[in-house]
Amino acid sequence: MNQTILKNMIAEWLEEFALPTFIPRDAAPTPADLRNLSEILALVGPRRAGKTFVMYQMIAGLMEQEFAGRDDILFLDFEDYRLRDFAPEDMETLFVTFRQLTGKDPAWLFFDEIHQIPAWSRVIRSLHNRGRYRIVISGSNARLLLPDIATELRGRYRDHLILPFSFKEMLRWKGIPWTERSFYTAAKGDMLRIFDTFLKTGGFPEVLKKDSPGERRQLLQNYYQTIFYRDIVEHYDIRAKSLMEGMMICCLHQFSSLFSLSAFEKSLKNQRRPGSKRTLANYLAYLQEAFFILCVDKFSYSPRQRVMNPKKIFLMDQGFIALTEDFSENKGRILENVVAIELYRRRQTFNYYKNRRECDFIVRNMEGVNLQAIQVCWTLTTGNRERELRGLLAAMEENSIPQGLILTYDEEENLPAEPGRRIAVMPVWKWLLG
To answer: Can you give the pLDDT at residue 428?
Structure first.
């Protein structure tokens, strides 16, 4: 690695780079958290969700609280084209160069998109072992959330999930203040207007800045193509591009629906196209690791049954739905997709329920105790009310769940239930606000 390039990049950070304005994110650790940071902190989430700006928020907090000066911090974006040849052995040159420019070692390391470095986890572990640095990293691959990464880093690791804006963050970005009393005033109209936009555009920050639907759709199309080519085809060296593209398109159109690998494999055979079930399972995993989709297992106490049954597919941001059919045809599925993303954001464990009846979600705690059954629909009508209730009650009765929740666009009531059980109807937007 050319040392002059490293010197230029460090000098740019120290002398020229101005922290941009940003919307404070709920998931960002506080300066006090960082001051006492003893573990490796990873910001993990989809590309373009705002991880870099969360780093800026953290850096700004450190400097505002006078916990650090600019020359105490080393910030590098490993997706910068100038670092394309950066190798693990170049890390020592990086620190030598920083010391040459500042006269001291950095106290904080902020390494954006760290997974671009070969053997990055071994590098970070070695840096952490020195005990000199507080380390914050980011990455756009969901593998950073897996237990084996924490194991590889010897347990000295914790992660923060950074997703596109939540509804609460979108209200903040739009300058819409709210309290619980706002739900019962004319201000509710402003909240519903923003919620309608949230359903259609999703939460990617740059997409929300675009004025027209056409501009937003074009940017989402660019994100879609970047995920496909850079995060999947190039990252995993995919040879069967058309097969990978076919699966990605299928997931895009089947959001909030069941996806069967066996059925997909059968359709390929009918078209006389190659594609083994193992290959398809790998491709589905790649789509998850790239944060394009979220796969939810069927609820079962048997691990084998969870694996063998079809997955339920959700898009990691509902904005991608704009690349499919008309919004009005999918309103109930869009609400369900929004709920799934929020459950994932809250780091809750959840599955779909399907026996004779169906229920959209069973939510469990860390100990595996079933806490709540959730059904999602756009509105309760005479045509669907009985079906939605029967599915919810079946999930509650079979699994001894005390609380049932029906989430709709904008309805609220408490429904009669058996002793020891409670069923509430609530607007999704209110549930999103916690």
So the answer is: 97
